[in-house]
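Re: beginner question about structure tokens

> Can someone show what the tokenized structure looks like for a real chain? I only ever see the sequence side.

Sure, here's an example I had lying around. Input first:
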Amino acid sequence: MLSDPTSIPSDRRLEIEREFDAPRDLVWMMFADPYHLSQWWGPKGFTNPVVELDLRPGGRWYHVMRGPDGKDYPADSEFIEVSPPERIVYRNRQLEAEAFGNNPPPSFLRVITLTDLGNGRTRLTLDAYFDTAANKDAVVRRGFREGVLESFDKLAAHLTTGATR
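And the corresponding structure tokens:
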């Protein structure tokens, strides 16, 4: 899958990157364990009252993010590739929900790569690949980049305060 991501035009790609003061195996656990994922996934002020996770190729990730306004934003994705502790590839399914009105977010492919930087540090790269430039623009207008960066802030905080249970 995506053996040559450079073949996808830049107007259909989005990359978001962050480094964490945590070893790669611990950052991987934050994605692989539904409890931990529920603690940090989503923008500031959002919670995850429902997280169902079957982290394997062909497996499903269903979750509901609840916004600060009380609206529920469901998401349903299928895992395409899972290579612990380095890479997760998944595609969300387009869902209708009251919170989205008549305009649900488009489906697009996401690749999460965890790079071991040594000395207990990890780089997390999220690459998003869109079917069309219009779909990318729509997701960007919805605040996708900002939401992911806020989510990464929550992950950094969770890694320092609550990463074990």
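Each token stands for a local structural state, so reading them left to right follows the chain. The beta strands are 13-20, 47-53, 60-66, 72-83, 87-93, 109-118, 121-129.
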